[in-house]
Amino acid sequence: MPTNNTKESTKASTALKGHLTEEENVFFFIPNLIGYARVILAIVSLYFMRQHPNICMVLYSLSCLLDAADGVAARRFNQCSKFGAVLDMVTDRCTTACLLCYLAIAYQDWAIVFQLLIALDLSSHYMHMYSSLQSGATSHKKISETSNWFLRQYYSNNLVLFSVCFANELFFVLMYLWSFNPSPLHPYIFWALAALTGPVCAGKQVISVIQMISASKNLAHIDTEERKLLKKAN
């Protein structure tokens, strides 16, 4: 029979859980509010993308820069969440895909390159996140010590992660601005920034390929282990 103290402790625990449930709403966490702002900025930038490159560039760049702010806010206010992590990744993938769609139209001779970049970006990140979930990782950014060295360096250092992603997006923004005639950018500025960000952009595509291969191997290993358990059970 439970004692009075046990009953009181259970009631207190239930009341506390109820209080936390009432007080906390993941959808209104500060980093997630920043995430919604990123989505709005990205959508508005798409509206101006065809005819107003300067306005589009500012709005799109702000959306990308806020990618760092939501992570800082999540750690600062102890508001990390699975919803926030997925919102962040989906926003990143969708905004990049939308910009690459425009580039495929602006540079029609290179359309297949931009189409493949979209496919690589989406497939690589989806497979990586799914593989991480299947492995029981708390976050897709948690890379095990046995994983590929490049992936560990990419995900374990927030400065490296932000710098690579920023340079990647900046290179695509530069190509977007260069598609206008006359271009809002001076040729010297364009070629200087392109020379800095282009190799980083290419490197990020290599990382995406490595990420997809690593996720594929991990999923195949999980399949093999599950099949072994099924055979033992039978």
UniProtKB/TrEMBL annotation:
The chain crosses the membrane at residues 26-49, 159-179, 185-207. Its cofactor is Mg(2+); Mn(2+). Pfam families: CDP-OH_P_transf. It is found in: Membrane. It catalyses: a CDP-1,2-diacyl-sn-glycerol + myo-inositol = a 1,2-diacyl-sn-glycero-3-phospho-(1D-myo-inositol) + CMP + H(+). PROSITE patterns: CDP_ALCOHOL_P_TRANSF (PS00379). Keywords: Lipid biosynthesis, Lipid metabolism, Magnesium, Manganese, Membrane, Metal-binding, Phospholipid biosynthesis, Phospholipid metabolism, Transferase, Transmembrane, Transmembrane helix. Gene3D superfamilies: 1.20.120.1760. GO terms for cellular component: Golgi apparatus; membrane. GO terms for molecular function: CDP-diacylglycerol-inositol 3-phosphatidyltransferase activity; metal ion binding. Its EC number is 2.7.8.11. GO terms for biological process: phosphatidylinositol biosynthetic process. It is an enzyme of class 2 (transferase). Belongs to the CDP-alcohol phosphatidyltransferase class-I family. This is CDP-diacylglycerol--inositol 3-phosphatidyltransferase. It comes from Actinomortierella ambigua. The gene is PIS1.
